[in-house]
Amino acid sequence: MQRSAACTRKNGCFLVTYAKVSTELSDAVFQAVGELSELPIETKVQNVADIAYFGYLGQDPCKPLMESMGIQNATSKEAVQSFTNLTWPSGNDHFSDTLQLYAKLVRELKETVSKMAFESYGVGKYYDSHNKSTDYLLRYIKYRVPNVEENNLGVPTHTDKTLITILHQNQVSGLEVKTKEDEWIEVEFPPSSFVVMAGDAFQVWSNDRVRAALHRVIMKGNKERFTIGLFSHQKGIIEVPEELVTNENPLKFKPFDNFGYLRFTLTEEGQAMNALKAYSGI
Ligand SMILES: O=C(O)CCC(=O)C(=O)O
Ligand SMILES: [Fe+2]
Fold it and tell me: Fe2OG dioxygenase domain: from which residue to which, for each copy (predicted)?
């Protein structure tokens, strides 16, 4: 299998080296979420959310290898603090300081990348108002090593429902991206690298110019895998900028409610792979 060509614009993602997150911070954040994942299950299940996947997920028979927890509104100091109070009632300043700094820096990366994307399409004037209405969810995802007779699928094939997802992993690989030619390619994360991935909301915003990355996780080897992702969603309604609607590329989507869509994808109808067209296609 090729390993270098997974993250390309054509596949809806790219790899960046981001030195603002130092090796020390990266190690500290993986250690912090490692400790979080070791807390008793009774503590972790208290992380409930209005939208299921924003909170604690685990023991799912469809995804038995995976467990995850989300910190909603993760770039707000108060939100990280109240998450920390929930999980460590006697306090854990090291956890909240580490997570806050990490979320702030990865958010800056997301902002830089989105601004560049807006400018490259000649619609930079919309960037500020778009940026103000972004919601940030920070999640860790932990994958255990499968038992001998178990399937090694960590996360089944999907696109994210986000505008942009930014992923960072410990040393253990497993993420695969599907090309337009229907080939699966494993993503290699060099040190200090992050995967920037377009989600369905970005596909809508770009009027189908950018395709949301189709991806999955396959566990290989005998080490557990951790990923930390910053998942950004749009509050309010996304309208395709009029500049991106042309005779050659007519409007493909109705005004799009990102959170409404997220809820829709958790319904039976929305579990279909063509959920985006079903929800918002013209
Ligand atoms: O763990 C990964 O690399 C990807 C996780 C993922 O695709 C997701 O949580 O949406
Ligand atoms: Fe994903």
Answer: 133-235
